[in-house]
Amino acid sequence: DTGVSQDPRHKITKRGQNVTFRCDPISEHNRLYWYRQTLGQGPEFLTYFQNEAQLEKSRLLSDRFSAERPKGSFSTLEIQRTEQGDSAMYLCASSLGGLTNEQFFGPGTRLTVL
Amino acid sequence: GENVEQHPSTLSVQEGDSAVIKCTYSDSASNYFPWYKQELGKRPQLIIDIRSNVGEKKDQRIAVTLNKTAKHFSLHITETQPEDSAVYFCAARTDSWGKLQFGAGTQVVVTP
After folding, report:
1. From CA A39, how far away is CA A109, in angstroms rounded?
2. Least CB-CB distance to B105: which of A41, A50, A105?
3. Which of A98, B23, B27, B105 is the most exposed place for a label (fewest CB within 10 A)?
4. Exposed, middle or buried: residue A45 (CB in 10 Å: 0-12, 13-18, 19+)?
5. Is residue B90 within 8 Å of residue B99, measured between CB atoms?
6. Interface A-B: count of C-beta contacts within 8 A
7. B37-67 pLDDT, tens digit each
8. What does DSSP assign to residue A106?
9. Nearest CA in chain A to B103
């Protein structure tokens, strides 16, 4: 499969625990985005990488959230001290840039915080 | 920042009829407007997009129109089929990095 992949697909955790998600973009894509999607809503932008540089972070992203893309390939999103309000689908997307900069989405990681 | 509003939130159509979804955006600097289709439990997939220097774009049964003056854009699906049933999201991009601001989505149900 040459599309964007995410791991795990589902994660159930208890409040206060830390969780980490991984995203593997399409191999030649230098741009990588994280979005969060709650039920009945569109994806909300969280953060963006161009290669290994994190260029923008949403004000929605509290200090408990951190993302990395150490070698400009895969990315991780960590949530520390999870809260019930963090329950959502976390989507990763990648793109090649250019005029349209089409973003290809992964299948998402569904997080449930009990 | 950019704000995108989408209407209606649900749309029920008979197979063969047309469906229209409308979005408005707030930032006049927005220059790219993609539409994504998301089937239940699946990832969002791009179905059509339009750039701000174009007023209309068509791809088979799907078309998108853009009115920059009024800051709104619409998705038109003709001859709807049951497989068109899904949630459709409009989005707008303002900056060159590609961050997308999405609407809340429209649940389209096509009944045979």
Report:
1. 14
2. A41
3. A98
4. buried
5. no
6. 61
7. 999 989 999 999 999 888 999 999 999 999 9
8. -
9. A42
Asked if A105 lies within 8 A of B105 by C-beta distance, the reply is no
Q: Please list, in sequence order, all residues whose beta carbon lies within 8 angstroms of the beta carbon of residue B43, skipping any fewer than 6 positions away.
A: A4, A91, A105, A106, A107, A108
Closest alpha carbon to A105 in A6, A1, A19 = A6
pLDDT tens by residue, B52-105? 888 999 999 999 999 999 999 999 999 999 999 999 999 999 877 778 999 999
Tally of CB atoms within 10 A around A101: 18
Structure tokens at A90: 């976390």
The mean pLDDT of A21-28, rounded to a whole number, is 95
Closest CA relative to residue B45, chosen from B4, B88, B85, B7: B88
Best CA proximity match to B27, nearest among B88, B65, B63, B72: B72
Residues of B engaging A, defined by a Cβ cutoff of 8 Å? 4, 6, 32, 34, 36, 42-46, 49, 51, 89, 91, 93, 97-105
Pairing type for strands A88-95 and A31-37 reads antiparallel
Alpha carbons B32 and A51: distance in angstroms, whole number:
22
